[in-house]
Design a protein that fits this description.
Blueprint (H helix, E strand, L loop, with lengths): L10 E4 L5 H10 L4 E6 L18 H5 L5 E5 L4 H13 L2 E4 L5 H4 L4 H7 L4 E6 L14 H7 L2 H4 L14 H24 L3 E6 H8 L1 H9 L12 E5 L4 E5 L3 H10 L14 H6 L1 H12 L4 H10 L3 E4 L3 H6 L1 H6 L2 E6 L3 E6 L20 H7 L4 H9 L3 E2 L1
Parallel strand pairs: 1-2, 1-4, 2-3, 4-5, 5-6
Antiparallel strand pairs: 3-12, 7-8, 8-9, 10-11
Helix pairs in contact: 1-8, 8-9
Amino acid sequence: MSAAPPYAGLKVLDLSQGIAGPYCASLLAQQGADVIKVEPPGGDWVRNAGGGRDGMTPLAIAGNLGKRSIVVDAQQPAGRDLLLGMAARADVVVENNRPGVIERLGLGYGAIAAANPAVVYVSITGFGADGPAAQKAGTDSILQSITGMAHRNRDHDGTPRRMPLLIPDTVTAVYAAQAVGAALYARSRDGQGRHLRLSLLESAAAFQAAQIVENRIFQGSAPPPNTVPAGVFRTRDGHISLSAVTEGHFRAAMRVLGLESWIDDPRFTDPAERKKHAAFVNDEVGRRLAEQTTAHWVDKLAAADALFAEIADYPAFVASPQAQHLRAFAALEQPPYGVLPVARMPGADRAWALRPAPRAGEHGAEILRELGLEQAEIEQLARAGTIRG
């Protein structure tokens, strides 16, 4: 039988909005934690980011799997008291406001740790807790711009481009979830809580560590390619990715492409020499690949055990035999859409239940009853606008 999820019994209070904080908390939920997502009266802003129904945008779903939601007006003293009561019972608290905001609400680390000294408190900011840019708004496009990502992703004309994936937010969430695990391990030994501070800026730096070192070593000039050939090439009817990490890959690709003579050509006999002629090699490989269909090259390159891949869209990826074999996607019943293909967290046991993301305030009364409130008290809070949903 499969073991219980590692965070079963762990209580997490998610005070964050958007992407980095919520996705961190969702990773904990997918490993068994009981995560209560607290939303302001208007709901998490991500519920309006992109298309969707009932506030269930793709980002709201992916960042909130497995949680329970309550809507609380933390500006009201009664709402703040509710959140302090929840935080007193939490093992982990996650927030991702600009520096000073959560403290002004009376929900900062100091206030919560006073009643719950063992709490692991996670603060995620765009640019850190202090410094000249600390109060700057930190969004994905801003972070990609200032951390070198957009510059690294320049097009053929040299124009910087934002990558259409939320990389700074996503990697920050992953680093934060890892830091929570380390803090909980330390707490198991010394019983002490911790205040973890992460920023999107630092996470973007760590994610690009090799590229930043590469830039310094080569003093800003174009570094040699990692492998030759390498790239995405056109075929007669589509595209294919082809590269050669090992000599075996190179020889296999050359034989398939009718370039056997290159195997013994002094210009191409070892990786260092090939890199000197990278443009020539890639141009000729591209010309050869353009002569036949993608299906033709897939058959030939697969038979030769070359290093290649057909370019797939998301439906093709989800339906691919290997993804299906690994059960990489769960068929999740997610209101209001029905069944959606949702990627499982890497390393998660397939026997662990993957629970849908909640609507805003969906579990409010349930959560308050667990906090010890009677129905009459809950109704009074609703009338006062302290809770909604």
